Amino acid sequence: MPNPGEEYLISRKKQIERRKKFLTIVSIISFVGSTVFAVIPAIQQASQNPKSVTASAESALQQQARGYELVLQREPENRTALEKLSLLRLQLKDPKGAMELLEKLVKLHPNRQDYKVVLEQIKKQEGKSDQ
């Protein structure tokens, strides 16, 4: 038969285990609840205003394009700015603007075949869309 000190330790361990389980359950419920409360409004907003999400993405692309245009005003032959701006113009459905930039890149870097290939692809697509 265990002595009173051992009985106390056993009951104390059980009490501590119950508290741990309780705190774990409360923590899990709190985490799930806070996640749900954060996600539901975002989903509702996206489902109600899908055009605003697209518009905000487009405006972000336009802001990036403006930034690269400012760089090109200071450094007209900046290869990185020319590359990135041409990609942004393609994403913004401005293939003619992208072609101008790629033509400049081909003139500045005639040994880069990738510029030539992309430029030819855009010209082919523009030729198909004009017909």
Question: Could you walk me through the main structural features you see in this protein, from its secondary elements to its overall organization?
Answer:
- By secondary structure, this protein is mainly alpha-helical.
- It has two domains: 1-48; 50-131, Tetratricopeptide repeat domain (Serine Threonine Protein Phosphatase 5, Tetratricopeptide repeat), CATH 1.25.40.10.
- 88% of the residues lie in helices and 0% in strands.
- The protein has five helices and no strands.
- Helix 2 runs antiparallel to helix 3 (79-91), helix 3 runs antiparallel to helix 4 (95-108) and helix 4 packs antiparallel against helix 5 (113-130).
- It is elongated.
- The termini are far apart.
- 10% of the residues are buried.
Key terms:
Serine Threonine Protein Phosphatase 5, Tetratricopeptide repeat, 2 domains, 88% helix, 0% strand, elongated
Give the CATH H-level superfamily of the largest domain: Tetratricopeptide repeat domain
**How many distinct domains?**
2
Number of strands: 0
Q: Which stretches are low in confidence, meaning pLDDT under 50 for 5 or more residues running?
A: none
Percent of sequence in beta strands: under 5%
Tell me the quaternary state: single chain
Please report the number of helical segments.
5
Estimate the mean pLDDT confidence. Answer: 85
Name of the CATH class of the largest domain: Mainly Alpha
Query: How much helix is in the residues?
Result: over 70%
Distance between the termini: 98 Å
**How does the overall form come out from the CA principal axes?**
elongated
Order of helices and strands: HHHHH
> In the CATH classification, which architecture of the largest domain applies?
Alpha Horseshoe
CATH topology category name of the largest domain = Serine Threonine Protein Phosphatase 5, Tetratricopeptide repeat
From the alpha-carbon coordinates, what is the Rg to the nearest angstrom?
A: 31 Å
Biggest beta sheet attributes: none
- The secondary-structure class comes to mainly alpha
